[in-house]
Amino acid sequence: MPRFAANLSLLFTECAPLDRFKAARAAGFQGCELLFPYDHAAADLAQAAEAAALPVVLINTPGGNWAGGERGVAAIPGCEARFRDEFDQALAMAGALGAGLLHVLAGLAEGAAARATYVDNLRWAAARAAASNPALRLTIEPINGHDMPGYFLQDFAEAQASLAEIAAPNLGLQFDAYHAQRITGDARAAWDNLDKMPLHVQVAGVPGRHEPQSGDIDFPAFFTQLDTGGYAGWVSGEYHPKRSTTEGLGWLREASRS
Ligand SMILES: O=C(O)[C@@H](O)C(=O)CO
Ligand SMILES: [Mg+2]
């Protein structure tokens, strides 16, 4: 059975941010991820995570002006200096929280210049992370273009090609089953077609991005597929609860029993 983490940016939003850690632990999660922890003092978040015995397993690099449409800058030509500044901020936050994974957001971009910028920035980031925090691993995540129009990385083949070209041991794939289903039409087949084991997995139901319980993806079969394939990382619930978070945790209880 996989180890389950709660995405505290989307789950337990009934509670204040620092109270979500204890709520997630009490509900049966073993870890958590925070999309954008940057509005909080790292020490406060670290203390809340420790008090709840709920490790922070993943954070994202800064998204920028999210309300204004930004989604990170790694693939945006001309933003290299900003990328480096924000990456260093993310490295410091990951270190302070003890997070083992850092998802590098690509941003809204397209074309050959964007791809070259993306690969160069990721190569730089992988070397920078290896020098400052050897335990940290970086991820890239294909995100579907319906939910995030114009996002640079919308394709698994493209993600794998970039990873192969950079060939950094601390850089790998983040497989979000929700996006995989929306991009390919079959998340479980997309998993089987990967050339390397991903570093992180996220789950949500399709359609609606609600609990990973019903809809187009057979989650019990997917969790078994992860186990039998030897996936030993985290599986994070990254979804919009249909009602309250705790009312929708039948999927976690069921998966934890099997
Ligand atoms: O799937 C997603 O949207 C996230 O994992 C993410 O990091 C970008 O918001
Ligand atoms: Mg995701």
UniProtKB/TrEMBL annotation:
Entry keyword annotation includes DNA damage: no
Domain of life of the organism encoding this protein: Bacteria
Domain Xylose isomerase-like TIM barrel: 21-254
Swiss-Prot/TrEMBL keywords: Isomerase
Database matches in Gene3D superfamilies: Divalent-metal-dependent TIM barrel enzymes (3.20.20.150)
Signal peptide (UniProt feature, chain positions): none
Single Gene Ontology MF annotation: hydroxypyruvate isomerase activity
InterPro entries (alphabetical): HyI-like (IPR026040), Sugar_Epim/Isomerase (IPR050417), Xyl_isomerase-like_sf (IPR036237), Xyl_isomerase-like_TIM-brl (IPR013022)
List of catalytic residues: 141, 238
Keyword Aminoacyl-tRNA synthetase: no
Classification via SUPFAM superfamilies: Xylose isomerase-like
BP GO annotations: glyoxylate metabolic process
Family the UniProt entry places it in: Belongs to the hyi family.
Protein name: Xylose isomerase-like TIM barrel domain-containing protein
Organism: Roseovarius nubinhibens (strain ATCC BAA-591 / DSM 15170 / ISM)
